Amino acid sequence: MPSARHPSPRRRPGLLGRFSKDLLALIVPAAAVVAGVGLLGCAPNGAKHLDSGEPLQPPSAFAAVADDAERSQAMFAEAARVLLHPRCVNCHPSDDSPRQLDSSRMHVPRVTRGTKGDGAAGLRCASCHQSENLSFTRVPGAPHWQLAPIEMAWFGKTPREVCEQLKDPARNGGRDADALVEHMRTDPLVAWGWDPGADRAPVPGDQNTFADLIRAWLDTGAVCPPDTTTPGAAS
Ligand code: HEC
Ligand code: HEC
């Protein structure tokens, strides 16, 4: 078979060479500025964790841990692989702006929560985010797309810190254990984590296994793991 290569275009090295040099002189500093802005855009306490990609372990996988408190901690650490995943923390920030992508860079364009979490006047979340993912424009979507209230901030926190928060009615939307599990199992914004659209990495496992872990953690005394525990570490 003859190769289908295109003939290389005729070059005029003098002109092109000069042109690209000038262009480079413009592009290089511009790129440096963009890269700098990109770096600044990453908050210093960004998402610390990218998931291993292993299946999410169900509560039964922890049956061998005889001590209830230890089992509780281990199951929470496993659930934290979901809770502290970029898909979740990008929308549970500690300031007024959502984050994007696995790097949790600042949202482009820069948007803020406004008074109700659904965006500032003139730039509401819903002006771009619909009730489902839009594949063509990459805009993720789910019903009632908006930022989690500031007291539910998880971004940059440890599993232990998020664990303490989830048990505190002042920081979990006034939920008791049943309401917390119900939210984890059925909320559409939580569900979006497993179906994030475009080329985004989903959170690990499936939503029911995740909710089962939260239930089992609550039923074993809702013990929080030590400060040093990282997501999934205890499994
Ligand atoms: C598009 C933004 C968005 C995404 C993405 C999102 N959340 Fe939320 N989350 C919210 C909002 C808004 C609330 C407050 C709703 C309420 O209290 O009824 C909330 C509240 C919660 C709560 C209850 C309050 C608390 O902190 O105890 C839990 C649990 C929760 N989210 C879990 C998750 C998990 C797990 C994921 C990822 C799989 C996730 N969320 C992804 C916006 C989001
Ligand atoms: C001007 C349009 C626009 C507005 C307004 C907007 N977004 Fe976005 N948002 C986008 C686009 C586009 C993406 C996808 C970026 C990508 O993945 O390339 C995105 C991504 C996100 C993500 C990242 C998902 C992930 O894990 O990667 C979150 C969270 C988010 N937006 C929350 C919000 C919230 C909350 C508001 C309102 C306060 C808002 N956005 C307002 C266009 C917008």
Strand content: under 5%
Structural class: mainly alpha
- Overall shape: it is globular
What strand line-up does the widest sheet have?
1-2
If you average the pLDDT, what whole number results? 85
Main sheet attributes: strand count, strand direction, barrel closure: 2 strands, antiparallel
Write the SSE topology.
Layout: H1 13-41, H2 68-83, H3 86-89, E1 99-100, E2 105-106, E3 119-120, E4 123-124, H4 159-167, H5 177-186, H6 188-192, H7 207-219
Antiparallel strand pairs: 1-2, 3-4
Residues 86-87, 90-91, 98, 100-101, 107, 109, 111, 113, 119, 123, 125, 127-129, 138-140, 146-147, 198, 200 line the site of one heme C (HEC).
Written description of the protein model:
The protein is mainly alpha-helical and 235 residues long. The protein has a domain at 41-105 and 147-219. The chain has seven helices and four strands. The strands form two sheets. A two-stranded antiparallel ribbon has the order 1-2. The protein is globular, with a radius of gyration of 23 Å. The termini are far apart. Residues 1-48 have low confidence and may be disordered. The structure holds heme C (HEC) (2 copies).
